[in-house]
Amino acid sequence: MNYKFTIIVPVYNEEENLLRVEKELLNYIKIATKTTKFLLVNDGSKDKSQELIEDICNRNPEFTFICFKENLGLSATIKAGFDHIETEFVGYIDSDLQTAPEDFNLLLEHIDNYDLVTGVRDKRKDSFVKNISSKIANGIRRTFTHDGMDDTGCPLKVIKTNYAKRIPMFKGLHRFLPAMVLLQKGKIIQIPVQHFPRIAGQAKFGLWNRLLGPLSDCFAYLWMKRKYINYTISKKS
Questions:
Q1: Collapsing DSSP states into helix, strand and coil, what is residue 11?
Q2: CA distance 195 to 199
Q3: Contact between 145 and 152 (Cβ < 8 Å)
Q4: For the chain, which residues score pLDDT lower than 70?
Q5: What is the pLDDT of residue 216?
Q6: What pTM, to 2 d.p., does this model score?
Q7: Secondary element (H or E) of residue 191
Q8: How would you label 195-228 residue by residue, b for 16+ Cβ within 10 Å and e otherwise?
């Protein structure tokens, strides 16, 4: 199969969700606008997630997996995904399925003209505290990065792989993917996508890593922006 698009699925203690993930992603293949495969990245889960992941991969050739020895966080799983994919385009979606795989087609409509297309969650189905803290964190990030994005925490993105592989990742940088593509002189856009309540498992982000953590990460981004090397080759032999 000549795959064009790989969807990274970070997994951490999601045994209650994984069979639904398998079903929904297989359904997406039937309507995907680009030939699609999936990379499940197990972030050191302590439950039965790895057993389920291996079962899913054994019965579906479209699925492969990576398993970390220990829990390293969302940015690490995304970086591992970027490092191990070879398709022209890469995306990711959280295994809690609070966003819909079919909305990848909405993002893919724009990927020929942009280098990163991110979802922005329309009518978020989260708690008041989670929504407010996320809105504040996004406001702080925009002040530092000027990326113009309203919801970089949305777990639904599509990126051209040649841009994704050049992103120097650090912990927390998953919130700065649009800004890092801008550093490469890339073009970005946000598109409204559906959002649903979590129906199984537990959220992995609390008030600290949703609000105060991103504030400290902004200073790391500013340092990287000053030091970032971006070049264009005019000739070579």
A1: strand
A2: 12
A3: no
A4: 124-134, 136, 138-139, 198-214
A5: 73
A6: 0.85
A7: strand 188-193
A8: beeeeebeebeeeebbbebbeebbeebeebeeee
Q: What is the pLDDT of residue 144?
A: 74
- In angstroms, the Cα distances linking 32 to 8, 13, 144, 155 are 15, 27, 36, 18
> How far is Cα 66 from Cα 53, in angstroms, rounded to an integer?
10
Residue 134, exposed/middle/buried by CB under 10 A (0-12, 13-18, 19+)? Answer: buried
Of 205, 141, 209, nearest to 178 by C-alpha is 141
Q: Which two tokens stand for residue 106?
A: 């909405």
179, two tokens? 């800004």
User: Regarding the domain with residue range 5-227, which homologous superfamily does it belong to in the CATH classification?
Assistant: Spore Coat Polysaccharide Biosynthesis Protein SpsA; Chain A (3.90.550.10)
Measured between alpha carbons, how far is residue 81 from residues 1, 85, 138, 161, 230 in Å? 19, 6, 24, 11, 23
Phi, psi of 122 (to 5 degrees): -90, 125
Bin 158: left if φ > 0, else alpha if -120 < ψ < 50, else beta.
Answer: beta
What is the rounded distance in angstroms from the CA atom of residue 153 to the CA atom of residue 180?
Answer: 14
Q: Are 14 and 31 in contact (CB under 8 A)?
A: no
User: What are the respective helix, strand and coil percentages of the chain, to the nearest 5?
Assistant: 40, 15, 40
Residue whose entry in the numeric block shows the structure tokens 């925490």:
153
Greatest extent of the chain over all pairs of C-alpha atoms, in Å = 58
